[in-house]
Automatic annotation (TrEMBL), chains A, B:
This is 1-aminocyclopropane-1-carboxylate synthase homolog (inactive). GO terms for molecular function: identical protein binding; pyridoxal phosphate binding; transaminase activity. Residues 97-458 form the Aminotransferase class I/classII large domain. Residues 31-40 have a biased composition (Basic and acidic residues). The keyword Glycoprotein does not apply. One of its GO terms (biological process) is amino acid metabolic process. Signal peptide: none annotated. Keywords: Pyridoxal phosphate. The keyword Hydrolase does not apply. Residues 1-40 are annotated as: Disordered. It comes from Ursus maritimus.
């Protein structure tokens, strides 16, 4: 038995509430949403109660090592369960269908074909030697050209503002460390992709302060869970009043898990807010090419003329989502701030990717013909078809959901299936899905403050998707909807022609 | 202008001296010894004097971010200079020859041929999806088999004790973080591969306590710079008495920069010392297959029967040195301590390597025919030939050096060329070499406490090596040896038939 000293553990102090209360939910790696969704009620043990949660066997580790291990163990439990019973069409047809992990499994055929071409295997001495830790110059040039084109930047982006590394998880870790002192914080609108909590905390010891969003459409809101400057201001003020030093704002656009796309006007408002308070803005655009609905009119922050505070605006992109290759480990930072780029680069010796992969990525990113004429149209068509199918199923079940035309998931309102509006009931429902061999992610893992929301990933092959949806339906049809329905929430998207209820 | 608050910066407090005094010398990445050797007198600015050293322009960064950036900037200066005038046989024959970076450039032909074979390009969905962050099971199995064979373990090593990641720099970072609290320390015999200072400090905020070794052979020593348990005990006691908490011991075997190989008896003595004090031992064996002299009789720590404290013994290996692929970014941990393996794995989401590279590495490591019949014999023959050439040149110049038959470098005693035994004079000599277009690494960057030692890398192609040595000779022949020679040091290796003076 041991006690975890608060100071040594460097675990986050209790968050200011209610604006910024946040649990340190955990999951397994990044592919981890899979795991995350298997254990929705993980919490970092309260420090005063650490003896019960952290194994006394970990005495070989430092206190922070025990916390780091705890994150893995919590997830590992889910990981083991899932992999013990993973669905396989032939070998394990009654195994678990995974509609929880945000991976695009629709285009492995296209990707395998492209990545297997002979131009992908190039071995040169320079690729086998120590690299420039910012990334090989040929790759940074290609990334700059790629982002200039796909982000529609008003002027060509510069290779010297690019730093490449092994994924956005690493980028969050590096940015948190170089921008914040220990214990400082970033604002983040919630619900949000929960793994970011670990990314900024495990090495960087940085906290997240949630800007909680409501499903209810009130005031000047035009949609559920709408982020407004007023909500940002309130959360920031509350954090300040409770002594939490906020150094930046994290924006995810297109949003995970909401699927929301910020309009240029909204983006500018958020950036102006940040500028007023001298906050860095990290814009995570990993789904920028996964906008499959043309009407969605996505705009990258790099497309804006005259950023309010370019020295504090840092853009993140990766191939994990837009090229369906989460296992390839390629991510990139774009920032005009030379100090930030340099400091991140200095940490890149711990986040480096193979020279051979850097070559492959440059080949891929420069192949505009394949991207524009083969990959993107086909990928978008497949995403749209899969989305339509799931949306239709949900509609048939009378389940409200947000439909946004971007990303791999639908944010689903299952509140009416909870006997009580509690996270305990949410977990029970999640477990009923799992018992019926379908894995979803529940809202708690995204720090949603209203129990009953789930994220459902649709970017999977038809046969798995159909089976998964059938299992979802079986569970829901077996539940009598609660008498007292929760207050109806406007789940339609007024600015889109895709209105779902 | 700003001042860097000591607490916020988390910069190391002044080290206990003399046993453990240590500057935070810096370099560029890992390929960085190149840079390191270009700027031998970097120091972490004294905090009280930070206004002069750390740029006031870095106000966008946290204090730790500024320190992290400072490491890059210091190295960047060297990086720029070197790359502005890099030697090229055709394009820049008067450019700088690099005998400073420890890379093996002798076998790119063999490697390129093997890595270009068609079996190396395999693209499967599982390789493109989120991996197990410990490494794909197929790779961990291959690593366990590989290490069992080449380390000659008494029993087969287990895949579950293997964690793979993107290089040993990352592994040092992760181990420091999970084993130590902020500000705690590892013992390390000095001289040592100086980049480790950053690896344990930048993210982990862990310090190194030097166990300084002498060139003079005294007492029961049998060779220069001999590590003994007595020296370990003394350094540990001094650290303890000065309030520095030491949590582990780092051993490099074969040693960088000495080239020393520890005998099984020595290894066991060091491990017993560590066990007595409950210290973790990190054994860095990245040069284990680069022992080109058969008489050298290298033994991996994994070959020992009955490790004294297996739960605190953690072995590191990588392909950077032994397979001459520092740009490929593959390293591995082997430890029987499940807690340590798990905690490191939890950080591996920030140190992950591509699934495609994992596949390639498994293919390479399992190809015993190629390794045993092609690569290793040829590599060793080339290393030996290059070593013989440089040793002969040094002998002809009357320069004492250590000759050990392992690694890519020779530890050279140039003390008699310094007018005074100071690091200032060492730097001046280093600069004379550079002015004559040959880059070496001077002893200061390895925390050698005697000015005048240099590390000379010989693992390069003959034409570059000859030219480099000619330039070295030109510099030394232009210097009149100082009248008062330093106390002669026994640079011969009594247990080896390769005695050099």
């Amino acid at each position: 038995m041991f006690t975890l000293p608060q100071e040594e553990s460097r675990a986050p102090a209790p968050c200011p509430s209610p604006a910024s209360t946040q649990d340190l939910d955990s999951n397994y790696g990044d592919g981890l949403e899979r795991e995350r969704s298997r254990k929705p009620d993980w919490k970092l043990p309260e420090l005063c109660d650490s003896t019960t949660m952290l194994s006394p066997d970990s005495s070989y580790l430092s206190s922070r090592g025990r916390v780091i291990k705890w994150f893995w163990d919590s997830a590992e439990e889910g990981y083991r369960t899932y992999h013990m019973d993973e669905y396989d069409e032939d070998k394990n047809p009654s195994g678990i269908i995974n509609l929880g992990t945000s991976e695009n499994k629709l285009c492995f055929d296209l990707l395998s074909r492209r990545l297997s071409q002979s131009d992908m295997l190039r071995v040169e001495p320079s690729l086998l030697q120590y690299p420039d830790w910012r990334g090989h110059p040929f790759l940074r040039e290609e990334v700059a050209r790629f982002l200039s084109f796909y982000c529609k930047s008003p002027a060509p982006l510069k290779p010297e503002n690019v730093v490449v590394l092994n994924g956005c998880a690493s980028l969050f870790s590096a940015l948190a460390t170089v921008l914040c002192e220990v214990g400082e914080a970033f604002l983040i609108p919630a619900p949000y992709y929960g793994a970011i909590t670990q990314h900024v905390y495990l090495y960087g010891n940085v906290r997240l302060v949630c800007v909680y969003l409501d499903s209810e459409v009130t005031g000047l809101d035009t949609r559920p869970f709408q982020l407004t400057v007023e909500k940002l201001e309130t959360a920031l003020q509350r954090a300040n009043s409770e002594g939490v030093k906020v150094k930046g704002l994290i924006l995810i656009n297109p949003h995970n898990p909401l699927g929301d796309i910020y309009s240029p006007g909204e983006l500018r408002d958020y950036l102006e807010f940040a500028k007023r308070h001298e906050l860095h803005v990290m814009v995570d655009e990993v789904y920028m090419l996964s906008v499959f609905e043309k009407s969605a009119a996505y705009r990258s922050v790099l497309s804006l003329e005259g950023l309010p505070d370019p020295q504090r605006t840092h853009v993140m992109w990766a191939t994990s989502k837009d090229f369906g290759m989460s296992g390839l480990r390629f991510g990139t930072l774009y920032t005009e701030n030379r100090d930030v780029a340099t400091a991140v680069a200095s940490l890149c010796r711990y986040h480096g990717l193979s020279g051979l992969v850097q070559y492959q990525m440059a080949q891929l990113l420069r192949d505009r013909d394949w991207i524009n004429q083969v990959y993107l149209p086909e990928n978008h068509a497949r995403l749209k078809a899969a989305h339509s199918y799931v949306a239709g199923e949900l509609r048939a079940l009378g389940i409200p959901f947000l439909s946004r035309g971007a990303g791999f998931f639908i944010w689903v309102d299952l509140r009416k299936f909870l006997p009580e509006a509690t996270f305990k009931e949410e977990t029970l429902l999640w477990r009923r899905f799992l018992d019926n061999k379908v894995l979803l992610s529940c809202g708690k893992t995204f720090e949603c403050k209203e129990p009953g929301w789930f994220r459902l990933v649709f970017s999977d092959k038809a046969h798995r998707l159909c089976l998964g949806m059938r299992r979802v339906r079986q569970v829901l049809e077996g539940i009598s909807q609660v008498a007292e329905e929760p207050p109806s929430c406007q789940t339609e998207e007024p600015r889109s022609r895709h209105r779902e209820t």
